[in-house]
Structures are given as C-alpha cells and as structure tokens.
Amino acid sequence: MNSTGRIALVTGANKGIGYEIARQLAGSGVSVLLGARDAGRGQAAADDLAGQGLDVAFIRIDVCDAGSIAAAAAEIDARRGRLDILVNNAGIADYTDGAPGKASLDAVRSELETNFIGALAVTQAMLPLLRKAKAGRIVNMTSSLGSLTLNGDPSWPFYGVRLIGYNASKAALNMLTVQLNADLSDTGITAVSACPGLVATDLSGHRGDRTPSEAAAFPVRMALLQGHDLKGICQSEQGAVPW
Ligand code: NAP
C-alpha cells in the first residue's frame, strides 16, 4: 500500500478537510499518520480509513499541548525514523471573533494559539524528522482571509469578513511559510501555503459549496508535487493568492 515510500503527518485529521487529506494522501500510496487531539475521535477516523485498505495510523497530537507534540515527534522518530510530509491542518474559528473594534480577545488569543503558534510548534518539533527525508514538504493550510492584500481590497467578495483573530492567524501562518523557506533554503525541505476555498465543514458552519473531498485535492497535490519550485508561495486551485 505504501507505494511511494513517503510518510506524512496530518494534524487535525479526525474530520473535515484534514480527514480527506489523510484519505487522499493514503490513496496515493503515502503512509499517513492521522493526527488528532482526541484519542477516541482520532482512532475511530484512522480505523475507518485503515478499514478501507489504506495505510493510516492514528497519532495523538494536540497542537496546543507541547507535551503531546514532543511525544508525537518521539513516537514518529522511534517507529518511522523520518517524516516526508507535514500538513499543518489543525485549525479553529471562534464565532466570538469579529471586527477589530468588538472581537473577543479570548477568541483572538485561542485562534492565534491554535492556527499559528500550534503550527509553528509542530513544525519545530518535526523539523529534525523532515531533515531526514530526501525532500521534505510542509503544507500550511491557510485561507485567502489571511491575505493582507485582499483584506484591503473593497472589490474582494470577502472584504466584509472581518475576523481579526482568524484572519491574522492565517496571515501569521503565511509568514511562517515565507520564513521557513528562507531558513531552509540550504535543505531539500520546502513549505507552501495552500488555500482550500470556502468548504462546508464544522469550522465554516457548513457554509460554502465545496466538499472536504474537493477541497483536499489541492493541498494533497501540493504535498506530493516533486521537482517544482514551491518556495514562498500561497496557492489555491485558481493560482497564486497575494500575501
Ligand atoms: P474542521 O472540520 O472544524 O476540522 C478542524 C480540525 O482541527 C478538527 O480535526 C479539530 O479537532 C482539529 N483541531 C482543532 N484544534 C486542535 C488542536 N488544538 N490540536 C489538534 N487538532 C485540533 O475544519 P476544516 O474546515 O476542515 O479546517 C481545516 C483547516 O482548513 C483549518 O486550518 C482551517 O482554518 C482551514 N480552512 C478551512 C476553510 C473552510 O472553509 N472550511 C477555508 C480555509 C481554510 P477536534 O475534532 O478535536 O475539534
């Protein structure tokens, strides 16, 4: 089943887009570690995919818990010895977020903590394992809501979606993509920000006309692309998204 020989970790993969990324990566022959913060939900999702004949195993990882991140890195090191693909997918949106003048500061803090600091912490912990891969790939699941350019463009259809915490967390995640590529320029590791579009999941309140399965196809392509210069870009299916 693991025909590509590659090993991937997908965070927040017990449901939504992450689950579909795990399913499609495994369907492409990648050995997938399905990350989830809740052991029951994560194991059930991994069992479901393994039951379909896919090479998927559950690994517990709460991106806001340094202990669980360190334990996951140690487990991957002990059992697999390296990591080829890291998909920083775990994310939250808090409906008490809002425009700068009225957003709940607790909501903003927790969105930054999960969507940005969580991804940074997981990346730091997994970098030694990615360095052991022939060509490591980090896919950061961002959103066009994180584009500084589009947030300032009154003609953009989502101009009115002013969620200071969520949008800032994705802008910060994009900064991680840019700085990682600068930092890792002498390695075979590349990072890319991938925008899935507006997808009907719990996070979006099931708004959006894209299914998780449709949305996962693009980040999976970004994860598997080889021999392309992806450095420092934010991509959607429609092409580059301005920073
Ligand atoms: P979702 O269905 O709500 O799934 C989010 C996943 O993240 C769940 O598995 C959740 O686990 C997990 N998660 C949350 N906090 C976590 C933590 N501290 N540690 C580990 N896992 C955690 O949302 P989704 O729409 O698939 O979102 C996936 C990613 O795509 C997010 O980064 C999101 O910002 C991004 N995105 C989504 C859209 C959209 O329209 N849906 C658009 C652009 C970008 P639990 O089940 O335990 O809560």
Structural class: alpha/beta
Low-pLDDT runs of 5+ residues are none
- Cα-atom radius of gyration: 17 Å
According to CATH, the homologous superfamily is NAD(P)-binding Rossmann-like Domain
Give the tally of β-strands. 8
Number of domains: 1
CATH domain class: Alpha Beta
Output mean pLDDT. 94
Assigned CATH architecture: 3-Layer(aba) Sandwich
Portion in helices: 40-55%
Order of helices and strands: EHEHEHEHEHHEHEE
Task: Explain what this protein looks like in three dimensions.
This protein has helices at about 15-25, 40-50, 65-80, 105-130, 150, 165-185, 210-225, and strands at about 5-10, 30-35, 55-60, 85-90, 135-140, 190-195, 235, 240. The protein has seven helices and eight strands; from the N terminus they run βαβαβαβαβααβαββ. It is of the alpha/beta class and about 240 residues long. The radius of gyration is 17 Å and the shape is globular. Strands 3-2-1-4-5-6-7-8 form an eight-stranded mixed sheet, with helices on both faces. The model has no long low-confidence stretch (mean pLDDT about 95). The termini are far apart. It binds NADP nicotinamide-adenine-dinucleotide phosphate. NADP nicotinamide-adenine-dinucleotide phosphate binds near residues 12, 15, 41 and 198.
